[in-house]
Specification:
By secondary structure, this protein is α/β, with parallel strands linked by helices. The chain has a single domain, classed as TIM Barrel (Alpha-Beta Barrel). It is about 40% helix and about 15% strand. It has nine helices and eight strands. Helix 5 links the parallel strand 5 and strand 6. It is globular. The structure holds nickel (II) ion (NI). Nickel (II) ion binds next to loops.
Length: about 250
């Protein structure tokens, strides 16, 4: 299995060697560590250089607009062979409501950068799903995934029509999960990929403690349960999807 999206920053984890070992024991064979600004993107690349099974996704979230930022600096990271995507990038109207146009421009510039390097994009979308959809509908991209999808079934179907994958994480295991359960039940397994978003959104029964990439099997079992199918089938199909998405 593959964790397509996690953060393993030294601020949050001091035992990366152990986490990597634990992943292998739990049949999690690749993880993609995601940046969201220049510093975290560089750290993701360093981890990818250090560990065989770690890959990096680099990108700028709208938070970088609060400060100065350089897309040239981001572009320098793309020559590294273990950078497999641009992300997380996207729109966040929960934290930033007053610069929607600037956010869209930053998002589109990074999609264009991904296209220049023939890379897929990993999308962060918070309280901005309609605008996110409009951007994707009107901008060419190679491959894309909605990370930690939290929208409606109707919108999920529209993203899938554009060829966008839907990434499922720990929220699907929460006792009050309703929307995402409906999404999982109704969309084809061929568009689902798995993530933990560590250290956030820890799945049950560990909710309330720190999250780890080796919890990915919990997500795949939950999807199997919701879709009333075999968890081996979920493992193999979501892994194949991930390999298509990221050119593994
Ligand atoms: Ni994230």
């Amino acid at each position: 299995m593959i964790d397509i999206h996690c953060h393993l920053e030294s601020n949050d984890y001091d035992n990366i060697d152990e986490i990597i070992d634990e992943c292998k024991k739990n049949n999690v064979n690749k993880i993609i560590v995601s940046g969201y600004n220049l510093e975290s993107s560089k750290e993701a690349v360093e981890l990818a250089n250090k560990y065989d099974m770690v890959y990096a996704s680099v990108g700028f979230l709208p938070e970088v607009l609060q400060d100065s930022y350089s897309l040239d600096e981001l572009e320098k990271l793309l020559s590294n062979k273990k950078v497999v995507a641009i992300g997380e990038i996207g729109l966040d109207y929960h934290w930033y409501k007053d610069n929607k146009q600037e956010q869209k421009e930053l998002f589109i510039k990074q999609i264009e950068l991904a296209n220049k390097y023939n890379l897929p994009i990993v999308i962060h979308c918070r309280e901005a799903i309609n605008d996110c959809y409009e951007v994707l509908k009107n901008t060419k991209f190679k491959n894309a995934v909605m990370h930690c999808y939290s929208g409606s079934l109707e919108m999920a179907k529209k993203f899938i029509e554009l060829g966008v994958y839907i990434s499922i994480g720990g929220v699907s295991t929460f006792k009050n999960a309703k929307n995402i359960v409906e999404v999982i039940k109704e969309i084809p397994l061929e568009y689902i990929v798995l993530e933990t978003d560590s250290p956030y959104l820890t799945p049950e029964p560990y909710r309330g403690t720190k999250n780890f990439p080796y919890y990915v099997p919990i997500i795949s079992k939950k999807i199997a349960q919701i879709k009333d199918t075999d968890s081996k089938k979920v493992e193999s199909i979501t892994t194949a999807n991930t390999c298509r998405l990221f050119d593994f």
